[in-house]
């Protein structure tokens, strides 16, 4: 073991030990599980985030997930043995290791490392309290990167050298996948070319990766919004936030992407069911609760409406620290290079907000609610005057209009 590795191990061991009380606050099934966990680094600690119970719906509980992380088993710096404990101490309820698969395992997973990732996930997994997952990130330098979860094996560029071959592999594996940091690689998944056979299994599109908002990624160089490109192509992905951690601070500090999942139970099966239902939201704020319905249909669902006034109800909270905080709800609709904004609604954290928006399937099939903080600017802006140039707090998963 090198001294560099020893420093990493010592630091994470101390972190895991000092975070014990926070683990209790974040773990469903304990006496303190009514509130969501928060990311606490060396800053003053907050006791709680929002309640895990929706004001709008019943039968599910909010958990916070980080589904995209790396270790020494690919191009990360950290010992994988410390990753799951670090994420649990950061207030996360669901965590995944997704090291890269490449060509000939160069800076990517080998078969033995894949087995080790599974062993580590199994050891960390506590059904009902903490869900630990093994996945992988298929990594093509031009086409893009795709995370895959819930498979018994992995594929790399030797076995799946194109988007079509990767989609065939995912379909045959029975797993689920998501588009990572969309727009970063030049060809953008063949510009999100649609494969109807994979529609149900491609469940995610990253909107927050590390501290970045991908709404307008590539805009300055003439590309369209990845959100537009993906959903306009026909994909029915939910929207996620991830840390994409390559160092040793899995789950830390505040401000990195997270995914809020509404689960019937915090188990591997419960997480899979929520992901397949697109019953989740993207955020980069720990402890946040977002639930939303459109004419009574929860985000991620289909609206059996071709045209008409749609009643939205949004539950938004982050606990005492954000009580009364003014926010904006931006109703995003399909556009060409950037999403159109059908409505901007004032909201206040800690309350529910109701509003009606006329929608028409002829204008496009999807609608997304973006939560923004008007006091801060989006570091990656789009068109002048676009509401999306305000700092993004969260994205609901889409609803899809159906005739």
Automatic annotation (TrEMBL):
Show where the Polymerase/histidinol phosphatase N-terminal domain sits: 65-142
Lineage, top-rank taxon, reads: Bacteria
Return the protein name.
Answer: CehA/McbA family metallohydrolase
Q: Which Pfam families match?
A: DUF3604 (PF12228)
Q: Which UniProt keywords apply?
A: Signal
First and last residue of the signal peptide: 1-33
Phylogenetic classification of the source organism: Bacteria, Bacillati, Actinomycetota, Actinomycetes, Micromonosporales
Matching InterPro entries: DUF3604, Pol/His_phosphatase_N, Pol/histidinol_Pase-like, TAT_signal
Biological source species: Paractinoplanes hotanensis
Tell me if ATP-binding is a UniProt keyword of this record: no
């Amino acid at each position: 073991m090198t001294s560099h590795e020893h420093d990493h191990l010592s630091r994470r061991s101390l972190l895991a030990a000092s975070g014990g009380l926070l683990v209790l606050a974040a773990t469903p099934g304990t006496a303190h599980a009514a509130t969501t966990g928060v990311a606490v680094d060396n800053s003053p600690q907050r006791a709680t985030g929002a309640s895990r119970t929706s004001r709008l719906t019943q039968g599910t509980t909010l958990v916070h997930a980080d589904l995209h992380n790396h270790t020494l088993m690919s191009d990360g710096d950290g010992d994988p043995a410390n990753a799951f404990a670090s994420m649990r101490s950061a207030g996360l309820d669901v965590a995944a290791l997704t090291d890269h698969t490449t060509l000939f395992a160069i800076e990517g997973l080998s078969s033995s490392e894949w087995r080790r990732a599974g062993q580590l996930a199994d050891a960390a997994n506590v059904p009902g309290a903490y869900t630990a997952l093994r996945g992988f990130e298929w990594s093509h330098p031009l086409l893009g990167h795709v995370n895959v979860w819930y498979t018994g094996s992995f594929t790399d560029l030797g076995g799946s050298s194109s988007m079509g071959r990767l989609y065939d592999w995912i379909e045959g594996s029975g797993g689920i996948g998501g588009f990572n940091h969309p727009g970063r690689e030049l060809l953008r998944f063949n510009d999100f070319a649609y494969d109807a056979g994979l529609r149900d299994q491609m469940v995610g599109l990253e909107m927050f990766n590390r501290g970045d908002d991908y709404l307008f990624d590539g805009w300055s160089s003439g590309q369209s919004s990845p959100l537009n490109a993906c959903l306009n192509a026909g994909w029915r992905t939910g929207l996620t936030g991830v840390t994409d951690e390559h160092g040793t601070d899995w789950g830390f500090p505040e401000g990195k992407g997270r995914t809020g999942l509404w689960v019937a139970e915090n188990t591997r099966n419960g997480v899979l069911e929520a992901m397949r239902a697109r019953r989740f939201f993207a955020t980069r704020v720990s402890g946040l609760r977002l639930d939303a319905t459109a004419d009574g249909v929860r985000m991620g669902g289909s609206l059996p409406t071709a045209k008409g006034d749609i009643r939205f109800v949004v539950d938004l909270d982050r606990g005492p620290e954000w009580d009364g905080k003014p926010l904006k709800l931006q109703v995003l609709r399909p556009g060409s290079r950037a999403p159109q904004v059908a409505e901007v609604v004032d909201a206040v954290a800690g309350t529910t907000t109701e509003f009606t928006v006329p929608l028409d399937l002829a204008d496009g099939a999807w609608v997304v609610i973006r939560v923004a903080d008007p006091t801060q600017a989006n570091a990656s802006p789009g068109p002048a005057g676009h509401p999306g140039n305000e700092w993004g707090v969260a994205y609901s998963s889409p609803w899809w209009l159906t005739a």
